[in-house]
Amino acid sequence: MSIEPEKLAIHGGRPVRQTPFPPFPDYGEEEIAAAVAVLKSGKLARQSGSKVGEFEKSYAEKFGVKHALAVSSGTAAIHVAISALGIGPGDDVIATSHSFAGSATPIVHAGAVPVFADIDPRTFNIDPRSIAEKITPYTKAIIPVHLNGCPADMDPILEIARKHNLFVIEDAAQAHGAQYKGRMAGTIGSFGCFSFWEDKLITTAGEGGMVLTNDDDLAKKARMVHHHGELKEDGAYYKGERLYLHSMLGYNFRMTEIQGAIGLAQLAKLDGYIQQRRENAHLLTELLSGVPGIIPPYEPDYAFHVFYKYILRIDRKVINADAKAFVEALTAEGIPCSRRYPTPLHQQPVFTEHRGFGGGKAPFEKPWYQGETNYGSGLPNAEQLPGELVRIMMRPTLSAQDMRDVADAVKKVAIYFGVEG
Ligand SMILES: Cc1ncc(COP(=O)(O)O)c(C=O)c1O
């Protein structure tokens, strides 16, 4: 039985949702008081205050790892991990093509080159089979991303890494509290990297990041990379005075005390946020079940998904619109949404044109890198899926009624574009 489509808002019909969705982050008195206390103390840098150190300690405890290092962003976290592992010019690192640029550009910042692998069409995470095909004589590491809050399939990735003697750096920027077979995302590889950017699962005043490791030596190196190649705990830092001794190439990737203090307050809220996100996502999936052409997010058996984003896939055999047209129509219905990473990373000009340091070709070409980069084409899922993926906003501040409005609007648009509609 075909259903008569309603007039879409984009064509002058009445929008399903006419009021704004609740904002996020929803900083409360705790975060505000914590930030004000730091301001009043006058101790704003981690060298003089104690909040960043406390945040690191609490984060390490919460995630059950030996070492946590707070940094200025998720991008810096990945850069620190790569550099601490000694990866640099001449090396390559396997990365996923379907992610935010910050998953791959730190490879270049560290002087190495990304080699992109294809994705699994159900989870949208890096496909272990593709990783195995992409390894080169220059490969030193793999960076799986736990995208949208869904953990990547780590066992086969770890197996490939073991076989080829590669490091694994987890990009858990979107997956605080997600679990793979009961293990916390970000605690499985040599390093786990998190972002606290403004809309992440928890956030530290707009920007911030964290690096986790269980390895004492790597933890020490990471700390040096993030602070000008000096190590405070090292005898070479203080001998009655600060020696200003820089024993490796380092950066200023330090987190501020205000960020650390806010991070402590946010960490206490993480479990509640995750519960709310999961309830919202599961309700939305239930409301959308049976809508022709709409494929809700897949939750593998191994996964505890934390739904940083809710990604719908549209079945182009059933829906006569691509993601762009679908998003335009859904936006007009009052639903915050977007396409999901419309240009895959292996097709980004920075990579296809080898736009490296100083506008030149370093580190993508000889004499720096001896291999051939695989940019431009050849990753079918990463190239096809952006035309089918719609990102629906998912926040712990949303209510069941918000989810009903999203579902009603998605149904309305899906029916309109339905091949039989
Ligand atoms: C998957 C992924 N990796 C890396 C990053 C980089 O994090 P940041 O924006 O904190 O530098 C982000 C975030 O935005 C991300 O979503």
List keywords for this structure.
421 residues; alpha/beta; Aspartate Aminotransferase, domain 1; Aspartate Aminotransferase, domain 2; 2 domains; 7-stranded mixed beta sheet; 4-stranded antiparallel beta sheet; 13 helices; 33% helix; binds pyridoxal-5'-phosphate
What would your notes on this structure say?
There is one protein chain. This protein has 421 residues and is α/β, with parallel strands linked by helices. The protein folds into 2 domains: 9-22 and 270-341 and 384-417, Aspartate Aminotransferase, domain 1 (Alpha-Beta Complex), CATH 3.90.1150; 29-269, Type I PLP-dependent aspartate aminotransferase-like (Major domain) (Aspartate Aminotransferase, domain 2). The chain is built from 13 helices and 14 strands. The strands form 3 sheets. A 7-stranded mixed sheet has the order 1-9-8-5-4-2-3, with helices on both faces. The protein has a 4-stranded antiparallel sheet with strand order 10-12-14-13. It has a 3-stranded antiparallel sheet with strand order 7-6-11, with no helix packed on it. It is globular. 51% of the residues are buried. The model has no long low-confidence stretch (mean pLDDT 96). The structure holds pyridoxal-5'-phosphate.
